[in-house]
Design brief:
Rna Polymerase Sigma Factor, Chain: A; single chain; 2 domains; 9 helices; mainly alpha; Arc Repressor Mutant, subunit A
């Protein structure tokens, strides 16, 4: 394994992990897990292919696996028992101005596409490879993510989905 090739990818991996996880500690753990997986699976990377896309794919899959695992370990808590321990709610204006908080409120699928395309400057094709989805799905999720993020940043309440009226055909 060429250490230099991996080292060049670290800033992007850290950025993406931080934006995905929303927490510096969790992001560092995710980068570490990604590098460990890359070392263990190094023989699967084909020389001449896009190392960056391969590493981001590893990271994205690890993130999804960790989310699934965390969801399985959630325990029910009685709200009355922890009422005094809960922080006060942020004002609507604070939430609208906090980009990181708004990003975390996007659905994970939309957030991943938005971050890869805008933050990591990946092409739609590379993003589709990393996430293992069609290019059309990348464009659709990106459009919805941008629209929702704009709403969140402006502090707007989500608009109900406007369906296309159906015509009755005989």
């Amino acid at each position: 394994m060429n250490r230099q090739l991996i080292t060049e990818q670290l800033p992007g991996l850290r950025r993406y992990a931080r934006a995905l996880a929303g927490d510096a500690w969790a992001a560092d753990d995710l980068v570490q897990d990604t590098l460990e997986r890359a070392c263990a699976k190094w023989q699967l990377w084909v020389v001449g292919t896009d190392l960056r896309a391969w590493l981001f794919t590893l990271m994205h899959n690890l993130y999804l696996n960790q989310r699934r695992g965390a969801a399985a370990h959630l325990a029910a808590v009685n709200i009355d028992d922890v009422e005094n321990d809960l922080p006060t709610a942020a004002t609507r204006t604070d939430e609208a101005l906090d980009l990181d908080r708004c990003l975390q409120r996007l659905p994970a699928e939309q957030r991943a596409v938005l971050l890869l395309v805008t933050l990591e400057d990946m092409s739609y094709e590379d993003t589709a490879k990393v996430l293992d989805i069609p290019v059309g799905t990348v464009m659709s999720r990106l459009s919805r993510a941008r629209a929702r993020l704009r709403e969140l940043m402006e502090g707007a309440t989500p608009r109900p989905q406007q369906g296309v009226p159906l015509r009755r055909l005989k």
